[in-house]
Amino acid sequence: MYKKLWIAILIALPLLSYGQVIDSLSYKNIEFRFSIAAGKETSQPVEISIKTISFPDTMTGRLINQLINSKIYSYNEDSVGSNVYSFTGAFLENYGDFRKDFPDNPMSWSIDRKASIICNNNKVLSIEFFEYVFEGGAHPSTTYTLMMLNPSDAKKISVEEILIPGSYDPLHKLCEKHLRISRNISTEQNLEDEGFWLEKGKLPLPENIALTSHGLRLLYNSYEIAPYAMGQSDFTIPYDELTKILKPEYLPSK
Length: 254
Known about the structure:
The chain folds into two domains: 2-149, Fervidobacterium nodosum Rt17-B1 like (Heat Shock Protein 90, 2-Layer Sandwich); 159-250, Heat-shock cognate protein, ATPase (Actin, Chain A, domain 4), CATH 3.90.640.20. The strands form three sheets. Strands 1-2-3-6-7-8 form a six-stranded mixed β-sheet. The chain has 254 residues and is an alpha+beta fold. The chain has five helices and eleven strands, in the order αβββαββαβββααβββ. α1 (2-11) runs antiparallel to α3 (84-101).
């Protein structure tokens, strides 16, 4: 029954493309929402929400779209889709397997994914990926991923490439300063006493760092430096504090 229903739904999936945004590179916003009753055992439907972006059909645009699609439409290690149809089918199939294995479990599933532009100029294209997913566990999972690309060839830009050599220590100090500001923790308070996990007494740089239109954004996901209950730590160091840390070409032009 599930299989036939899913096939019918996939054929009729709405895919809405709207608006064209122009910063340095032009792109379109794409939005998709899907909801289906999970069964009489639960009043909550299975829900899928996708908000993403698409670049023009040029050589660079296609490469950027491939990178975005690989993040937005991939689902578990066994299923890597390239579009909303394969992604939705894989998610619903996995939910169907879950219901077969646990028929008395009333929990429904939901997934929400977004891709959005946080910096778009002639030097860097920064993209934020967001995922909220609940698959019947103790609590939902929320994850952010930041990616920097070269807008001319779609190659990924690493943090090392934008930093002046030897600037890691100053960046670490700024990172701790702005983490404390974002969490309202004074310099006299010990971060470990406040619930943070340090490496040899030092705050590690986050896995996700990217340039934005306002500065350098640093984002720690749940469990990266603190328990789930403390959530994400997300803050931006303004450009005027980065003049001796970022290479000049990545600073805003005067």
